[in-house]
Amino acid sequence: MSSNPFAIRAENVGKQYRLGTGQTSLRSFLSSWSNSRKGKASTKLFWALKGISFEARKGEALGIIGRNGAGKTTILKLLSKVTRPTTGDITLNGSFSSLIELGAGFHPDLTGRDNIYLNGAILGLTQKQIKDRFDEIVNFSELGRFIDMPVKRYSSGMYARLGFAVAAHVDPDILLVDEVLAVGDEGFQRKCYDFIHAFVKSGKTTVFVSHNLYVIEQLCDRVIWLDNGEIVMIDEPGQVLSAYMDRMNQQQMVSDNILESETEDLTLVRVSCVDEAGHEKTTFDSGEDVIIQAQYTASRPIHNPYFHFSIADAQGGPPLFHASMLVDGNTPPTIQGVGVIRCRFKALPLMPKVYQIWGEVFGGDRARILVKWQRMSLFQINAQDQAIGRGGVRHLRADAPIKVSYQWEWND
Fold this sequence. Notes:
Elements: E1 6-18, H1 26-37, E2 45-57, E3 61-65, H2 72-79, E4 87-92, E5 96-99, H3 112-122, H4 127-141, H5 156-168, E6 174-178, H6 186-201, E7 205-209, H7 213-219, E8 222-227, E9 230-235, H8 237-253, E10 266-274, E11 283-284, E12 290-303, E13 306-313, E14 321-324, H9 325-328, E15 334-345, E16 353-362, E17 369-381
Parallel strand pairs: 3-7, 3-8, 5-6, 6-7, 11-17
Antiparallel strand pairs: 1-2, 1-4, 8-9, 10-12, 12-15, 13-14, 13-16, 16-17
């Protein structure tokens, strides 16, 4: 660890929860309590966190990433003292504010004004501090017209705005943030992001949980990768995020699709990528030809079927490019029985990541759908030709889907 004094220290922290709907009667509660006292095992217990240890230095921005259910929010709830650890110890040096459950503690029958004073007091502000910051809180929330309205009449967005505004003006030493950049409309989200960015740059400590890896990369000094309640990796953002994305890509590649047809006339048995010899292949180099192979069974003669394939980023978004018989008119005259259709995409200039193959098949009249539009397969462009240069680790903003050659020039 650095000689810089720590702001947060977690030592062998574990958190156990009980699954189920809870105890419905005093008898069931006493029975459960008695069993736990006798040491009887329960199948309804699970560990959300399992013996994790880490430190956040003063002035550091620490990011936490992982899939849903990895334990990210559980860590923030433990740090913010919403709940207590089952095992281990957590130490915070300094005051803190939590942007986790925005508006927690608001009373629905009180006005926005009253709830500012109530929530501010819950977060540790004195009445004078709240009064001095009241106008700033209202202006930040953009709820001036509604500040004397009971919050039970607020929309969920208005409710969250006010909660963020109060929590943001506590002026803590440590800020705990959980995906609050989704609050309100785009303009308010930008305001929230600007506030968090300014807080991070002010030299105070931030713990930031997000699925937005671009934001994590930009804001954080170090990143913790959680999986199933355990720490997989702690390191600089570029190292952790690259390893995390590679793992996500590998997991995506094991998925398999069940292809759906709109008619019994035509069934796509399997769609996959193959090499020149027709052997299935899932990984290609950037600039290599990618051959898509569709194995079909036609129960009757089908005249002039129109096949369509598209390549899309596995993370979502519209297709990057298409091959469509509907456009080029190159249809097989007739297909019947068992057969194969292949489509070669030549010299694909794709960046290393996982890509989806989408497709559909139309009948000869171009109106009847034989196989509906759906994801049909996956393939991956490998990263062996993407060396890390002197500029550092792979930068997420530069991880665009299409790879083209470029060259820098400047005057010495």
